[in-house]
């Protein structure tokens, strides 16, 4: 990667070896590329980000495809993505409905992702090194949902609570679970994935539970009052 520097974490732990065994299929690659906002953005995914090496799970594109695979196929009856069903089914639909411009950039080495939208703005989601190399595959799916919720019109509306690992007192939190913001969408998906995720491993489901509880405990100005 021309201007990025990163270290690839243990791919057995992050789930990249597990999901990487499935994504190296041209049918899947074409589907993800054309469905989840990559299409038309080749210039953001080549030059070391993986466009020319789409099966290499050391690189950002394949690590993003792993998250897309998890989003697409983790419901037992994944073909049913009606919004009236469980979020495990319709999260894939929500992301594809709201994420039509997905770009890869280096960032500052720790940044995860950012959503840009509004008047006189090039609506887009940017993914950074932290997305690929500090998050496991379920956590990357959570991020795609989180940022898609912003694209769907839900900004953060509160400051993080005292003691939050995300920065106590800083903006970027959601006020309540009932606000149904980006943090709620991400945590709810992780909850469903933990409870009913298919085509995965028990270890990754447990990691999703832990991440979901981290969000619940730290990302709401008023704690929801429950945990996973």
TrEMBL record:
This is Uncharacterized protein. It comes from Amycolatopsis orientalis (Nocardia orientalis). It comes from the Bacteria.
């Amino acid at each position: 990667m021309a201007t990025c520097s990163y270290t690839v974490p243990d791919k057995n732990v992050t789930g990249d070896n597990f999901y990487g065994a499935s994504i190296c299929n041209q049918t899947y690659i074409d589907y993800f590329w054309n469905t989840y906002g990559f299409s038309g953005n080749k210039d953001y995914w080549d030059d070391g980000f993986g466009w020319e090496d789409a099966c290499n799970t050391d690189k950002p594109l394949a690590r993003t495809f792993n998250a897309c695979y998890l989003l697409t196929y983790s419901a037992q009856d994944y073909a049913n993505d009606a919004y009236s069903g469980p979020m495990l089914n319709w999260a894939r639909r929500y992301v594809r409905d709201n994420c039509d411009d997905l770009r890869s950039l280096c960032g500052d080495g720790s940044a995860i992702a950012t959503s840009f939208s509004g008047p006189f703005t090039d609506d887009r989601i940017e993914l950074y090194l932290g997305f690929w190399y500090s998050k496991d595959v379920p956590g990357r799916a959570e991020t795609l949902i989180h940022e898609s919720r912003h694209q769907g019109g839900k900004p953060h509306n509160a400051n993080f609570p005292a003691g939050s690992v995300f920065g106590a007192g800083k903006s970027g939190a959601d006020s309540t679970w009932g606000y149904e913001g980006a943090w709620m969408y991400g945590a709810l998906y992780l909850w469903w994935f933990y409870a009913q995720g298919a085509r995965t491993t028990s270890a990754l489901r447990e990691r999703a539970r832990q991440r979901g509880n981290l969000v619940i405990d730290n990302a709401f100005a008023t704690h929801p009052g429950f945990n996973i």
